[in-house]
Amino acid sequence: MKNQESEPEKQHQQDEVLKTEQNSQEQIVDEGEGSTLSDSSQPIRPLGHGAFGIVYLVYDRKYGIVANKIILKKKYDKKEWEAAVNIHDKIQSCPFIMNHIHQQDADMCSILVTEYSNMNTLEIIANQPKLSLPIQILRALMKQILEGMRIFHEAGFVHRDIQCDNILLHNPPGSQIIHAKISDFGFAKKEDLINEQTYFARTLPYMGPEIFKLPLIVTQKVDIYALGITFYKLITHKYPVSERNIKEQQKKMAQMKCIDRPSEIKDNILWDLLFQMLEE
Question: pTM score, two decimals?
């Protein structure tokens, strides 16, 4: 009887959450359009939206075509911009790392202005099981991403949220070149500032073995492991381990001695690289 009585209450709570999220989205759209409409910029079209807010494609007289990430102030985490500034100070220019250009405040929103990537993310490839990338294209993408990660790590940072959806693809207009760009620095920190008290959200399949150990000491190895999973999914269109929750994920990984070579990976050199990236 107790469960039956709680169902309408649960439904009401869910409806209220959805209503609140919808109102937030409407606020963001109204405020965002007003914020991007100025003498120096003109919104072109929405690119996407989520719990954080909405992203617009914008023409800016100073910066050209850019992406404006518009976030309600109550949901804005300054860590993303602070990390981006720190990273930009250390890494002046790298075609394989997303450039955060500017941050500004409106009445209700904060706006992050970033360079625009015009070809979605690696997730769009990883989620198409019938799409098999030619080895030359795969190697080119992997080389770019690894170079971006090398420069990122040389500057002393740990990204902590590497996954297919945080690596953008861009085709410079008028060229046949594709650049992969590491993005989303909301969890990035200097390596020496990360200690055992640090906890962060990330997609379970990308979490390396050291994340499940106590004391929790996060190093740049977590990014290398997550990149290995990213490449694994890009090739096989699946994760080597993907359980329902963190407890089951931890248990499954503890039972495994290593990740087995999937049948989709024929190239020995490629598998040797992935095996090293995914080893404990």
Answer: 0.80
